[in-house]
Amino acid sequence: MKTLGRKNHEHFEEVEAYKAEGDPYAVFTEGEVKDLLTAEAMHEALVERAIVRGSGGVRIDPSSCDGRFLLFASSLFSLHGRLANSSEPVVKRVPTTWAKRPGSRLTRLGREIWGVCARYGDAIRDGEEWLERYGGLRLHPSVSVAFDAVREEWGLVTELINPDQAVVDGSYEQSAVAAVERFGLTVRRESAGIAFRNRLSAHDAKANDNFRSAARLVAALFRRHSKMLILRVDLYLRSGVRAWESTPEVHKALEGYLRSLRDGGVVPGYLGFILKRENGVARGVHFHLLVMLDGHEHQSAYYFTELLGKAWVQRVGPESASYYNCYGGGNNYKFNGLGAVHASDVRKLLGLRLAIWYMSKQDCLLHVEGEGVRHFRRSPIPRASVKRGAPRQCHALAEIVKSMLAGPRSRVPRVLVNRKQ
Exposed, middle or buried, 83 (CB in 10 Å: 0-12/13-18/19+)? Predict the structure, then answer.
């Protein structure tokens, strides 16, 4: 009688174990998914605001001009969401017993408007010409609408000295209150318009296309290899080479790096890659790279990720390039999706989905660049192959992978959302 090979035996044992449990998704506890989302958000903030040296030393610099603008843009995104998705007032009428006349007071949402306008005014007074410095950025549609309102109204809004204090009708500060109301009305009117909705739809559609494309690649590779070694590295150009980072030489260096990766000259057991190119405010041009290796043959995720980073530095030059080994921070993730990932491991698959979600995003902040710049790339999807033996086990593994990676772009798959309801 023909016996199962080592790989097929592992397939059989792990699938049967999940069948015995009845519900493979029961491994998740309340709060764990939330922890995962928080960890990924921290990573996103880290790679944009950090100065990275080698694979280790990371220094956060949110006090720089770039860092302050990033925090400002994040506040605009949040403010826009509250204005566009609710009818919450920004100003309320109140009696002023001390003046014996009616007046107005900013609501919590109104104070948020005052806050972003005050932050913009402080930057101008400090000599930080944000409009001149970042005028070449392509902003997320929501950030763009709110930023336009700030530039229009900040002067009048900041004439209100104390946003927590009521303003008496007829006082000189009443024009500031009117500016806050006008700010809210403008953002809501623009956000309800067809032009904004079309921009937002196109923005979201591109991210969704990127996500589905990457998920299809990963699922196809899992159909061929039930166990993969997942590597994730951030490849940087140092801040001192900003004038060089958008030149053809950078494109040539990246293409040479990817060619060497595909040919097996960087790491062994290469199966595929996903690459996201970003041009952030603080970090400039950088790349998020996810590489998949044959997990049955290779296990050392940290070592191979180091090879990915060192190959980038060697190709570009130590004076111009640096990298961050994401596996080094793996302990910060409940489900990091890095290292050895079996097709039946729903915890690891959730982390892998979130990595794809992050890499497929359309940036809030991007430098306007020439046509033809590809911000998202992946290796070709391999053709389906006919596998011998254990077809039911292979089908069960494919169904688990599909349930965790398929569907529209979202942090959490439908199978977990439906399970919690």
Answer: buried
